Each structure stands twice: as C-alpha cells, then as structure tokens.
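Handoff note, outgoing to incoming analyst
You'll be picking up this chain. Sequence as last confirmed:
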Amino acid sequence: MLGHNSSVAAGNLRATLMSWHEAHPDVEVECIEANRSVLLAGLDTGEIDVAILMGAASHNGFRCEPLWSERMLVALPVSHPLAERDVVHWTDLRGERFLLPVGDPGPEMRDMLLGRLSVSGAKPDIRMHRSSRETILSILGGSSGVSIVCEGSTGAHYPEVIYRPIHGEQGPALAGCSGYWRDDNSNPAMRRFLGFIKTRYALSFDSSLKTQ
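Most recent structure output, in case you need it:
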C-alpha cells in the first residue's frame, strides 16, 4: 500500500507509478491519498507500506529518504495580470490573496508562503479553506485569489485557470518529496518498489530489510 498527500495528475509520482506498472504488470501498487498524520499512523500500524510526502521531516521509528523535487507553480485566473507572464517570481506575488486547502498539502504551502513573502513583519494574505484543492481550483477562475500547487497537480485542468512556474533568486522554486517506511517491514513488494525508485532516480539510500 502506497500513501501520498499530493496529486498524481502529473509529475514524478505519476510517472513512477506508470513506469512501475509497465515494468511489473503482475504487482499492483494500491494507493491511498490522505493527510500526513493519517498516513504516518497507517505506517505505524502496518496498513501502509510506503508514504511519499512533501518535505523531509524525520519521525521516530520511520526511515525518511529524499526522493525527488518538483516545481512549484501559481494557479491564476486567466484574467489575472500575472497570467500574461511565462514565469512568475516570488516578489510578484506580494499583495496577492492566496486560497489554500486546510488539508494536505495546504499547510506546507502556507509555511512556504510565510517563509518567502513575509517582509518587515507583514505577512501574506492566506485564506485556508475547508475544501479540497480540486474544489479550490475549480472555483479559482471566478475569484480574485490565486493558489499554489505542486507540479503533480498540473495534469488536471480547471475552467478559466492557468498555471505559471514560480522562480526565486536561484531559479525555479522547488519542493522536495521524501519517502517514509518502516525498516522492519518485510513486504517483498515494497522492497522491490523502493529499489525501483532508487534505480529510476539514481538515489543512494539502502532499501534492504533491516532486522534486529
């Protein structure tokens, strides 16, 4: 069982799952999308074998290894002045009203915005909604706000909404994704899947079973 808290409409997670299915059609990877706390609890009970989450926060009892990075984009109504640009910089977003979901990955997006756009004590205008990211993007085209999404969300299209990549001083804004699993999980399919990710992205973590 694979847990994730981000969209698989596009991006590396979708590409990984598609490549895995092509290479191993006999081994189905069942996915569950939920908030970080639910997925980590599932790891603890053994219901979930691997969780792929934004960020790289360590948790007692779980392995945490960085997997890949994805671009961050701003979702804009097509009528927004920034929609005419090919690239949007963080500084262009000061003064905007951000609409984000209370559920994942909304809190990570909020923290990123607070870190990037807080200036001289002034914080960005962030509205957290008790709606899914899909609902927020579905109504964004008729609003005066904008939203922030990972590259994985850009495979889905919404009326009157476009995506523009965000750049900072060092180039494209990126968000890292990490894998979490229990070292004592002996599920052979999970070990194969971790090895597949390791090879696909040329990573160096040890995916072998750790025994006491």
